[in-house]
Each structure stands twice: as C-alpha cells, then as structure tokens.
Design a protein that fits this description.
Blueprint: E1 2-10, H1 16-26, H2 45-50, E2 57-63, E3 66-72, H3 80-86, E4 92-98, H4 105-116, E5 122-126, H5 135-148, H6 153-156, E6 160-164, E7 169-171, H7 182-191, E8 206-215, E9 219-228, E10 231-232, E11 236-240, E12 246-251, E13 254-259, E14 262-266, E15 268-269, E16 274-278, E17 288-290, E18 308-313, H8 329-342, E19 347-350, E20 356-361, H9 364-376, E21 381-383, E22 387-388, E23 391-393, E24 396-409, H10 413-423, E25 427-435, E26 438-446, H11 447-450, H12 453-460, E27 466-476, E28 488-491, E29 495-496, H13 499-504, E30 509-511, E31 518-519, E32 523-528, E33 534-536, H14 566-572, E34 577-581, E35 586-590, H15 595-605
Parallel strand pairs: 1-3, 1-4, 4-5, 5-6, 28-33
Antiparallel strand pairs: 2-3, 6-7, 8-9, 8-17, 9-16, 10-15, 11-12, 11-17, 13-14, 13-16, 18-20, 18-21, 18-22, 19-20, 21-34, 23-24, 24-26, 24-27, 25-26, 28-32, 29-31, 30-32, 32-35, 34-35
Helix pairs in contact: 9-14
C-alpha cells in the first residue's frame, strides 16, 4: 500500500489532538455505532486532566487507498524532546497555527527543527471560526517566520488550508463549503512525498528506535520507521548503539503496526512503515535495530541540552512513610533511571552522598509531570528548588535565556514590563497591540528570573494574562536576581493544627494549611507578611476558665487556606526549603540539616 508519514506540530492548545480526532472519524476508522471519546490520542491520565499532550503518539488512517501514518506531538516547550525525536521518523509535517494568536514560541521551535531536516510543511490555519480570528494576519506572520528561520524557496512555497478542527472541516479558501476534511487529506497525499526508504527495500533491515514502551504481555517494545529492507516475525536481528557498538542480539517476537487508535500484529514490516518491535531486553531510544550483517548505526538527531535541574531525595520528614509505599533511595533511583531511558530530554546524576539525585530537564512543567507520575505510583519524595544549568563558553560563565511572549490587557502592561526588565534582568524585544484592548510583549529573560514568576504574573494581571516561553539562547551571566520577597511561617511544634491558634495568627500572613491538619517542627504552614521567616505555634489552644461573660466566646472563622499545586510549590520555595511530596499531599518545609552541617553553618555565621 502507498504510505505517507506525517507529524502534526503546533504550539500548546492550538488544536492538534482535536484535529486528529476528526481525521480519525472522517477516514472511517470508527464504526458508525462506536463510542468515542474527546481527544482520543491523549490516553494518559495526566494528559486528560490537564488538557495537554505530553507524549508523542502515532495513529494510522486510510484515505483513497493510501495509508497515512499520523504522529500527534506535544505542544508545550518542556516536552520538546518528544518532538525532536519524532521529526526524524516522518516525511512531512502539518503546522497548525491558531488564527487569532498566530505563531507562538513553540511554533517557532518545532518549525525550525522541521525546516532543518528539509521537511516541507503544510500550514493549517486553525480555529478560523473564532470571533477574534484574523486568518490572513496569522498566515502572513507564518510566512515571515519561515523567512526569518532561513527556509529554502521550496519550503517558503508552502500550501495552506483554513480549518476548524472542532467543527471538522478544512478548505483551501476562506469562503469554502466548510463540509469536511477531504481538502486536507488530499493535500497530505499530494504534497507529502512517499517514504524514500521504499526505494531501499532490497537492502538489509535497519530501523532507528524513537520511542520506548512496555507491554504487560510482550515486554519491552521500541517504535520507529523502517529505514531499509524488511523484517519478519521470528527473525534474529541485533541492536547497535549510536557509536556502532553491539548491544544485544535478539529474536523478534512480535511486530505491531498502527491501525486506527490501536496496534495490530503483522507478519512483515516493510521499508517506510512505522512499526513497533518486541523481543529486545536492553536496546533503547536512539539505538539502531538492524540485520546481523549491518555494522554501521543510523545517525540519531541531537537533542537540545537541559536548562534546569532539581534534586530528588528521600522524604525524611517526621510524617514520612504514612502515605507512600516506595520510600527508599534505591527504588527512587531505579525509577528515575527508567524515566531517563525513555525520555531523552532528562538526565540523571547521583549526588556525592548517594542518597539524592540531580534530575536535569527542560522546565518546571516537565519536572512537575514526572513527580506527579511518581507520586501516583506510590513514591514519597523531597524536591529542591529548581536551579538553572550554567555553561562555560570561552572561559565566560553563560546562563540560559528564554524568549517570553505575553498577551496581556493594556492596563497591566506597565506592571509586567517592570517585573521582567527591572527585577528579573530581562530585555524587552517587542511590544505591539494585539487587538481587543490587549498588548503583546516579547522579552528575553534569564531562566532564573522566570522560576516562580508565573504565580506573581497571574496576580499582576488579575488572572487574565497569557504567558508562553521557550529556550532562546545562552548569554553571559547577568548578575544576582532577587528571589521571593516574603518570608514564611514555620511551625515550632509537632502535632495537629488548632483552629483557634490559626485564627489568632491570621494577622501574621496567609496560611497553606487548615485546622486539624498534621504539622511538625520545621514545616512551612504559611507566608509571612514581612520579608523574614517567623516561627509560630499552630497548636496553642484557648485557655479555659470557669468565668462566663458575654463577648468572651468569639466565633472562630478561618480564612480559606491557599492550596498550591505541585508546580506552584516547586517554584515557590527558596534555596533552603524543600517540597515534601506523597501520594496524598504536598507540603513545604525547611531543609533539615544534619548536626555537622548545622555546626558548620553556625560557625560560618559567627
């Protein structure tokens, strides 16, 4: 069968997964009476909860006798490592752009990767039926972006369609019939070239592994595109590392091909098709699976380096072990190494003591998703404040700089610019009206300055601002940046918080806990009104007397406590604080120092 391999790439929330839903429906993948779910490709529990794609996933549809393999990719910058791997597996891309927002940071990132690989994109101007849509402006901005990224003439002459993924139509013109997606299907078949690998069908079998998975029945599985030759079930092949070293030889126990939303076993994998292979025990992402006579590994795409690191440690608080079942450092280490094996954007290092692990990645959201997955699996952890990764270039210390694009109401622009360019050492690049009383601000800000900024940004813009960011470049170190201004309220007792005590302490600041919650010495229970830390007693009850008088028994009415999400907690803490994560709860606490470290610290302060 004729094959087309295509990836759908876009900025977060521009409608990739919703469009794939409609492509599946209109290609006849579903039966007429089959029950379907919204965003069918977002099969992960966290993806459904948050409404974002985290893992790249493949599906396959048939259109007029042509098999179209479609890969749905994440849109958030933190998961860019998934996109970098997947683009080497396809022959074309559909670039989705929101008709109202236009190109955004991740649009620029994924397009640059696609153009560098020589792919010729199809541009889909999506959501043209929105009230504030400006499809012509969005299309012009996309053309400018292509030109700025150094696209070749062939790539600049890109075909485009106007679409509404939710309504299930795509047309070559704005005033088209708006009936179905046949115009997009026909364009994919006509514009995307068949896999070049088909011409190498007579050569020995070779395949570059791009995603790693596990199946409860068939074990370790690797997915990729067959670069040459053919493979049959039961055949013996070997795995080579990037450097060409032999990793293992194994017998192929199963070959699975994508058919609709599921995978079906097939007997033969042909050159150019995207398939999943089972039978290996050691081979992993970026390894070459090949016939026994092949000695040269396929080149793997380089992955952009991590920009932040977080320390994962055991939970050593007095409440440790009450909620989770996996609390030992050995178990945590095994889980992190397993994650690094399948997620090439994450790096794991042991600390000198060996009881904690430095995890490096792309951003706070990527770390938050990893921690969330681990806590759901029963892990208990203590997490440090994120730190940026510096790099020495020509003997000068450089730090990562991020491009920030902000859409904000006109009245809040002053506060946002002041925070970014003043306190956080950013440079204003562009500022222009974005229509309907909004302003678009583009700035280059050190990654350090953006840690913990999102919560403050939402406060400054009354929750109406939208902030997007992506790695831009490395720049010389810009000097110290002030961290959190407020101090914290720290419990000085172990026990259960009392409503009366919290009520009496409310004028000291806002609380993160409510009454009848377990607390311990060193636990952070709130934010102080001032810039210093304050130890308080949340267990102190009301003194009882036998004197009765009117007005002495005041009603205790507590202000609702602030409940921070996992990502917000990680961004909030200071260098001497930790986030305690269990399957049921997230707490903040001061870092416990061992006696030697405490003595050393007091001696240096003295």
């Amino acid at each position: 069968m004729d094959i087309r391999n295509i990836a759908i790439i876009a900025h977060v929330d521009h409608g990739k997964t919703t469009l794939v839903d409609e492509l599946l429906k209109q290609s006849g993948t579903y039966r007429e009476n089959q029950a379907t779910t919204e965003r069918a490709m977002d099969s992960n529990e966290i993806e459904r909860e948050r409404g974002i794609t985290i893992l790249a996933k493949a599906t396959s549809v048939e259109w007029k006798g042509v098999r179209v393999n479609i890969v749905d990719t994440p849109g958030h910058a933190d998961f860019g490592g998934e996109v970098e791997r997947i683009l080497s597996m396809v022959d074309g891309v559909c670039l989705l752009v929101d008709a109202a927002e236009g190109p955004m940071p991740q649009t620029k990132f994924v397009l640059a990767k696609a153009l560098a690989l020589g792919l010729r994109p199809i541009v889909v101007v999506n959501k043209v039926d929105k009230p504030d849509a400006e499809p012509d402006r969005a299309l012009n901005e996309v053309f400018d972006l292509f030109a700025n990224l150094g696209a070749e003439d062939e790539q600049l002459d890109f075909p485009h369609v106007y679409a509404s993924g939710r309504s299930g139509w795509a047309d070559l013109t704005l005033d088209g019939p708006r009936k179905d997606l046949s115009a997009l299907f026909d364009l994919i078949v006509a514009h995307v070239e068949p896999p070049k690998q088909i011409a190498r069908a007579g050569e020995p079998f070779r395949m570059l592994a791009t995603t790693l998975g596990a199946d409860p029945f068939i074990g370790r599985i690797l997915t990729g595109r067959v670069e040459s030759g053919r493979l049959t079930v039961g055949e013996s092949i070997k795995a080579l590392s990037r450097t060409g070293e032999r990793i293992e030889q194994f017998r192929v126990s199963k070959i699975l091909a994508f058919r609709g939303l599921g995978q079906q076993p097939i007997e033969v994998a042909e050159a150019g098709d995207i398939v999943t292979i089972a039978g290996m025990t050691k081979a992993t992402v970026a390894d070459t699976l090949c016939a026994l006579e092949v000695d040269v590994a396929l080149p793997a795409q380089p992955i952009d380096p991590p920009t932040i690191s977080v320390t994962f440690g055991i939970n050593d608080s007095p409440l440790a072990g009450r909620d989770g079942t996996k609390v030992q450092s050995r178990v945590i280490r095994e889980r992190l190494l397993r994650e690094a094996e399948s997620n090439v954007a994450i790096k794991i290092e042991d600390t000198p003591g060996g009881d904690a692990f430095i995890v490096s990645g792309r951003g706070e959201l990527q770390m938050g998703v990893l921690i969330e997955n681990m806590r759901r699996e029963g892990f208990e952890l203590s997490i440090s404040r994120p730190r940026v990764i510096y790099r020495d270039i020509d003997g000068v210390r450089h730090e990562p700089i991020e491009e920030v694009i902000i859409d904000v109401d006109d009245e809040f622009t002053g506060a946002v610019i002041d925070k970014l360019t003043g306190e956080r050492k950013g440079d204003l690049v562009e500022m222009k009206p974005a229509g309907v009383g909004k302003t678009r601000i583009v700035a280059h800000v050190p990654s350090r300055g953006l840690i913990g900024y999102h919560g403050q940004f939402l406060t400054d813009t009354r929750g109406t601002g939208v902030l997007n960011r992506i790695f831009h470049d490395w720049a010389p170190y810009k000097g110290p940046i002030q961290g959190r201004r407020q101090g914290v309220l720290i419990s000085m007792e172990n026990g259960t918080a009392v409503a009366y005590a919290l009520w009496k302490l409310e004028d000291r600041g806002k609380f993160f806990i409510g009454a009848q919650e377990a607390v311990y010495t060193g636990m952070i229970i709130g934010e102080h009104n001032r810039d210093n830390d304050l130890e308080v007693n949340p267990l102190k009850g009301k003194q009882l007397t036998n004197v009765r008088a009117s007005g002495t028994d005041e009603a205790v009415r507590l202000t609702t406590p602030v409940r921070m999400s996992l990502e917000a907690s990680i961004a909030y803490i200071d260098d001497d604080e930790l986030v305690e994560v269990t399957p049921k709860i997230v707490r903040l606490r001061k870092r416990f120092l061992d006696p030697h470290e405490r003595k050393r610290q007091s001696r240096s302060e003295g």
